[in-house]
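> Could you send the DJC25 protein prediction when you get a chance?

Sure thing. Input:
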Amino acid sequence: LQDEETRKDYDYMLDHPEEYYRHYYHYYSRRLAPKVDVTIVILVTVCAISVFQFFSWWSSYNEAINYLASVPKYRIQATEIARQQGLLNKTKEKGKNRRSKEEIREEEEEIIKDIIKNKIDIKGGYQKPKIYDILLFQILLAPFYWCKYVVWYCWWIYCFTIKGQEYGVEEKLYIIRRYMKMSQSQFDSLEDHQKETFLERQLWIRENYEVYKREQEEELKKKMAMDPRWKRYRRWMKNEGPGRLTFIDD
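Output:
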């Protein structure tokens, strides 16, 4: 009875002895209540998710590097750069430091992968992971991001709504990205020539974007119409898809 809440339940029981089941409920609810602080549980869960995110992104990044190292175009370029820098010659040592062909091959492979990592900017879902992108840091930095967004939004209203300034390249691309409903990482993964096409067609103007959107939808319909897989799918939907009644004799 040292706990204040428990003491209140005890005093209530003395004043209302007829509420038998209510007393039992309060008793077992306190006995079986979790002893661990909810804050600690949430913190441990967020940390576990963050660790899983980080290692999952690293795995995806390494898969992308291994794939690029197997593509002849990038492999030949990386090998040529390694030769120019004299990195491949160092692997072929003689005398006591002489190593097996397997060890030399592994070291050359690592050199080529390192060059690809430094020379190629991988974007999108396979880009190099950053520790500030994991859930834990996103939660901790949320107030900073929110203040930053408010300041940026006020600047946007002042420059382009009140003063009527013309959009720069970055602002035009931002408006186009918003029209396309793409995240920043998705938009960054697009090729430079695609972004140049967006600017040439002035897609930051809503009317121009609507025309471009309709053109893309029509082109997608044509591709789907010519795709053998979609033809098989439509044929299956027509002959054996949902809504078809069949009778099976026993």
